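Lab meeting, action items carried over

1. Structure of the two-component assembly. Owner: GW. Status: complete.
Input record:
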Amino acid sequence: DTGVSQNPRHKITKRGQNVTFRCDPISEHNRLYWYRQTLGQGPEFLTYFQNEAQLEKSRLLSDRFSAERPKGSFSTLEIQRTEQGDSAMYLCASSGTRSNQPQHFGDGTRLSIL
Amino acid sequence: GENVEQHPSTLSVQEGDSAVIKCTYSDSASNYFPWYKQELGKRPQLIIDIRSNVGEKKDQRIAVTLNKTAKHFSLHITETQPEDSAVYFCAAIRTPESGGSNYKLTFGKGTLLTVNP
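Predicted assembly:
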């Protein structure tokens, strides 16, 4: 399968714990995006990488959130001191370098905060 | 920033009928408009997209139309089948080529399409 891969698929944790998600983009894609999706809503943009550079962060991404893409390949999204409101589906997408290249999504990581 | 409104929020049709979902956007410089289909518990899948220099695009039973003047675009599904049942999302983007700052997609809130056999 050469699509976008995300791990884990589900994460259940207690409030206050830290969690980390991983995204492996399509191999030839240099752009990588993180979105958050809550029930009944469309995905909301969180952050975007071109290669290893993080070029944009949404105001939705509080200082408890950090994303990295150290070698321009896979990316991680960490949430520190999780809160109830962090419960959501975290989606990763990737795209190629040419203008208006479509974004292809992974299956997401569903985070549930107890 | 960009704002995308999508209607209706739910749509129920009989198998074989057509379905139309409409979206409006606020940023007149948006230049790329994809549509995604999301089945329950699965990833959003790109089904069709249109660029601002094109008014209409078709792919078998699916078509998208774009009216830049009115800032709205629509998804048309003909001869609907039960497997078309899913949530459909429209999105808009203003890429750096059109003066935007990044490649973030702004999504509508989705339309739950139910095709009854």
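2. GW to write a short summary for the group page. Key points so far: Residues 9 and 66 of chain A are 19 Å apart (CA to CA). Chain A has a mean pLDDT of 93.
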